[in-house]
Structures are given as C-alpha cells and as structure tokens.
Amino acid sequence: MDVTIRTWNEGATGEPCFDRSDHAEVVTAEDALTRKSGLTWVDVLDPTEAQFAPLASALHLDKLAVEDALTVHERPKSLRYGEILFVTAYTVTEDGSTSRISMFLFAHGVLTVRLGPGFDVEGVADAIAENADLLRFGPHALELMLLDAVVDGYTARITAVDEKLDDVESILFDNRSSDRVSQVAFELHKNVGELRRIVLPMRDVVGSLLRRVSAATEKHDLLPYAEDVYDHTMRAADWTEGLRDAVESVRSTNLALVDNQLNTVMKKLTSWAAIIAVPTAITGYFGQNVPYPGFGKEWGFWLSLLVMAAIAGGLYVAFKKRRWL
C-alpha cells in the first residue's frame, strides 16, 4: 500500500506550494484528514483489506463504502454515509487499461483509494496547481478536478476507438479485407461495450456533484466548472452510444458484403456448371449405341458440335446479361 499526502494552505492562490509525503504512516494520514484548516488530499494505492482496515477504523468509514472501495467490480456511484460522501468510478487510459478510483470527502480533505496505477495522479496535481483559486471551495473542488480528469480519460479512449473505427470503414469495401474487418469490428464491439458500462453510470455521479454545487450558495462560483464537467460527461456518453451504433453498422454492412460476395460466387459457379453441362449432355446423347439421325455420318458429328456451341453460347449470353458472369 502506497500512501501520498498533499496539503494546501487555506486561501492559497496562484501556484500553491504543497507538502508531499510518500509512503506516509496511517496516523499521519488520519491527522491530515481530520485537521480543521487548509485542504488535504490523501491518496492510497492498491491497499489490501488488512492494510486499509486501521485507516478506515480511525476515520470511521462505513463498512459498505470500504467494501465498495476495495472491490474490483463495482458500479460507479455517489452515496452519502453520514457526514462522509463516497464516490467511486472507473478510470480509462487511451490504450484501454482500466482502474478504479474511490473518493471519501471530509470537511477539509479527500481520501482517494485507487485500485491499479492507470490514473494520472501527477497530472491531476498539476491541474490543481494551475487552478489553485478553486481550492477555497474545499473538498468539492478536489472532487470536481478528479472527476474532470477521469472524464478526460474517457474522451481520450473514445477518440482512439473512433479513429480505429474510421480506419476500418476505409477498408470496408475492399473484398480482400473482409476477415480483417470482421476481427477488428468484433474487438471494437467489445471495447465500446466496456466503455458503455463505465461511462454511462458516470452521468449520475457527475449529475449528483452538479446538484450539490447548485444547492450550495457559497459554491456558486464553482458551478460553471461543474457544469463543464457534466457537459463533457454527457458528450462522452452520447459519443459512446454513437460509437455503438457505428460499430453495429460496420458489422452488419460487412456481413451484407460477405453475403453478396458469396452470392456472386455461387452465381458464377452455377452459370459455368450449366454451360459445361450442355456439352456433356449432347455428347452423351450422340454417344448412344443405337441408330439416330446422323449416326455414323460425318454431318452428325458437325451437328452435335453446332448444337453444343449454340446452346452453350446462348446460356453464356443469357447469364452475362443478368450479370451472373
């Protein structure tokens, strides 16, 4: 379990100086989160249940919230347990790696529990430094910037999937690439499905933050930022839904093209089989061991050739007009 503590002096503006301590002791994290001034961010990476238990007990965290924070497969949500607000969400990198981040909001601090190293904590710290004037709004400002970074990760991943979909669409009508299109479209279908399970529930999480900020008169200056994050979340959700429809369209179009190509091949095979069957039938007829008109005569041979050429040629012309050949 790695613990990082960042603290800001109350009222800091501009480029704030914050104290950071890696691998901090639990008692230090407890003291930092229960202080009555300033703002504290305690980040805990990959804790086990036994490692996290002393800190959870010292901070009086609800057992259900702790269980949700330490469970790998959990739906994004925003709930209040007494005086502590609990938020959990998935983070996604551009290459598709996912991790979990859970937040416990206190009066003057935020405790984050991360399962997996995929979230760019240093990038968020830099963003906080660039927007230090928002820190006067307390833990909600930290929550807002953390969720903003989470949603930005969604946008980056969705953009990468969308670009890959564009590449597939560019080779969709290349008959030689149907197998490749099928494989990539299946992978994209899985990727979009994973994104939907992660992104869509975030509408409720960010919507809950927006409602809390809207209801607090002293946080009205924070409202435009909350609305911006909510707008990004809704756009990511809508984009994800659009990607799902686009992937399904590519898959169905590719299947239709494959079926059409198969029908074309079957038409050609059937047409040539019919043409080849004509000489077989005629030579079989003229090869009988019983007398028939032209039997044993030279003109009978030429008659059979003429009949074969006429019927086979007629079939070829008929199939060609129907574009079967």
Automatic annotation (TrEMBL):
The keyword NADP does not apply. InterPro entries: CorA_cytoplasmic_dom, CorA_TM1_TM2, MgTranspt_CorA/ZnTranspt_ZntB. One of its GO terms (cellular component) is plasma membrane. It holds the Pfam family CorA. Its main location: membrane. Keywords: Cell membrane, Membrane, Transmembrane, Transmembrane helix, Transport. It is a multi-pass membrane protein. One of its GO terms (molecular function) is magnesium ion transmembrane transporter activity. Gene3D superfamilies: CorA soluble domain-like, Magnesium transport protein CorA, transmembrane region. The chain crosses the membrane at residues 269-287, 299-319. It is found in: Cell membrane. Belongs to the CorA metal ion transporter (MIT) (TC 1.A.35) family. This is Magnesium transporter. It comes from Tsukamurella pseudospumae.
